[in-house]
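Case study 2.
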Amino acid sequence: MAATAEPGGAGMQRRGPWLRAAGVAAVVVAADQIAKAAVRSSIAQGEERRFLPGVQLVNTRNHGVAFGLDVGGAAGVTVLIGLALLVLLVYFARHLREPLIWLPTGMLVGGAVGNVLDRLRAGSVTDFVKLPLGWPAFNLADVSITLGILALYLVVDRGKARDPGGPSPR
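Prediction:
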């Protein structure tokens, strides 16, 4: 008689974090792309509009990576993003049992994909939030990446605090 997997068994324990990370990534990509499309259709490129005290909505293009940093043109940006995502996904695959690891992974993947879609569509990323004091304009994908890095640090640090001896041998 063939063995059947029971609901919630080992397969689901491995798939669950992947599905949750994919869900977070999908929400981030959708929100980012909707916001960017709304900005492109309602604010002329280079125009600024007051949104909240100290916050402007703008329509600007970024050809570099986060906050306008240039890493060698489109090829350099693509390689950097690809390598970062590869490292992240390998880490994620090796730490699936870590509580909440799916959340920062989904945020980081979603943010990266949101910006890559812009690069593929237009050769640059639409940025639209401008803060005071010369802070570079950014978008929801950038926010997701920034918060994802912070969340990843907190999840990894929490894991180290729970297991001060380090990872168990596999």
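The radius of gyration is 19 Å.
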